[in-house]
């Protein structure tokens, strides 16, 4: 394939499920927005989905963002990171496998948006969602800290000679 015939990966599409549009509008497009851009929320949602080990493929009713939009701010690295974590094989980063990497990101993002929506539903007294997200982020940070402390416990080390 010549240089001219190579596909432009920046034109590849990254999808999110349309059912999450009210949440996107609330967190990105409202006056009290938490995220500056849709892609920022999508990256956050994908990390939430991954941290909860939840994956939901996007339905056929979907909205697109070009991969180049993520690449412009180097947020496409999260797409590749999630693919590496899921596939545990660097071949997922080859151009030929890029669509698979994007599908992984989309699935975690879609699941993450569902989780975030459930958080919002549990807290109807927080119309902006700011307090709810802050609370969930702090809870996750505390869980991470606890895990970190537990893994540093030398009492459980076994040395074999």
Descriptive terms for the model:
161 residues, mainly alpha, two-stranded antiparallel sheet, 6 helices, 6% strand
Number of strands: 2
Q: What class do helices, strands and sheet pairing give?
A: mainly alpha
Strand order of the largest sheet: 1-2
- Report the portion of residues in β strands: 5-15%
SSE diagram, text form:
Layout: E1 13-17, H1 21-29, H2 38-51, E2 62-66, H3 67-71, H4 76-87, H5 98-122, H6 130-151
Antiparallel strand pairs: 1-2
Please tell me about this protein's structure.
A two-stranded antiparallel ribbon has the order 1-2. By secondary structure, the protein is mainly alpha-helical. It has helices at residues 21-29, 38-51, 67-71, 76-87, 98-122, 130-151; strands at 13-17, 62-66. The protein is built from six helices and two strands; from the N terminus they run βααβαααα. The N and C termini lie far apart (54 Å). The mean pLDDT is 88. The longest helix has 25 residues, at 98-122. It is 54% helix and 6% strand.
Question: Could you provide a short overview of the structure?
Answer:
This protein has 161 residues and is mainly α.
């Amino acid at each position: 394939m010549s240089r001219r015939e190579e596909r432009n990966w920046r034109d590849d599409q990254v999808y999110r499920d349309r059912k999450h549009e009210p949440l996107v509008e609330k967190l990105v497009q409202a006056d009290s927005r938490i995220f500056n851009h849709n892609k920022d929320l999508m990256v956050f949602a994908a990390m939430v989905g991954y941290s909860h080990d939840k994956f939901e493929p996007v339905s056929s009713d979907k909205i697109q963002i070009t991969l180049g939009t993520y690449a412009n701010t180097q947020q496409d690295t999260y797409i590749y990171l999630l693919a590496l974590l899921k596939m545990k094989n660097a071949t997922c980063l080859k151009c030929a496998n890029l669509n698979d990497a994007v599908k992984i990101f989309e699935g975690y993002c879609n699941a993450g948006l569902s989780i975030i929506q459930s958080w919002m539903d549990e807290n109807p007294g927080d119309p902006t969602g700011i307090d709810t997200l802050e609370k969930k982020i702090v809870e996750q940070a505390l869980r991470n800290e606890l895990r970190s402390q537990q893994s540093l416990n030398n009492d459980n080390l076994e040395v074999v000679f």
